[in-house]
Amino acid sequence: MINENNRVLNKSKNSSRKNSLSSNDSNNDYIYKSEKYKNGSEYIGEFRNGLKDGKGIMRYKNGYIYEGEWKKGKKDGKGKYYKKNERLKEDRYEGEFKNGKVEGKGISYYSNGDRYEGEYKDWSREGKGIYYYNNGDIYEGEFKKENPEGQGKYIYKNGNIYEGEFKNGKAEGKGIFYYNYGNNNGDRYIGDFKEFNKEGKGIYYYKNGDRYEGDWKMDKKEGQGVFYYKNGDRMMGNYFDNKPIGKHVILYANEKVSEKNYLKLVVLFD
Q1: Which domains, from first to last, does the chain contain?
Q2: Which of 18, 39, 55, 68 is deepest in the core (most CB within 10 A)?
Q3: SS3 at position 184
Q4: What is the pTM of this model?
């Protein structure tokens, strides 16, 4: 959302007026006038009962402009908050305001090329929305305190998709990752995630019909696991760095049993 430091709060009740132009200034009727404030801001628009009410434009000293609806001295209704100089890549918001704050549905355009369309509460992304990243990725789902949180879908530019739980802006919890690009195209993973990595318990389905069920850490097989081959055989044992280590038991589809030893990890210290 637009940085709070760039906002100038409505101070119509406390600001001293330098000058104003008006006509038919009565207590109950809408009037149209211009009003300048000691802090350098200027408002042009409708007033009622001495407060900004109706449609109007507020030009703030920092260069930002609010253009839209007002109610009882505060931004309320539909409006736009933007920088006057369109040649500069500045953040801007178009949408709903309530009680002086961005709240409801709206669109934010960010200076880095990102865009958000969705729900807001108290100037923050909160509720359901879609975030378009400047690199081509897209997140669609729930937001809390500006970040993706709850249920959502992250679509990568290359076609890969994560669908599941998010926490503090990252894929975390239960989810599904669909591989639609590169050597893993056609594979999918169902299980636990932490900070966008496969971590915890999960099942990896290979496009050739094989699958792995077991422990994961930092996006790799690590811990106890079972590898199921499409021909019905299965192998049980430990994994590290995506590879089997130590003794593995192989149960064949024809009910025969064998063992296989893989090299154990040796860590050398200076």
Answers
A1: 69-262 (2.60.450.20)
A2: 68
A3: helix
A4: 0.83
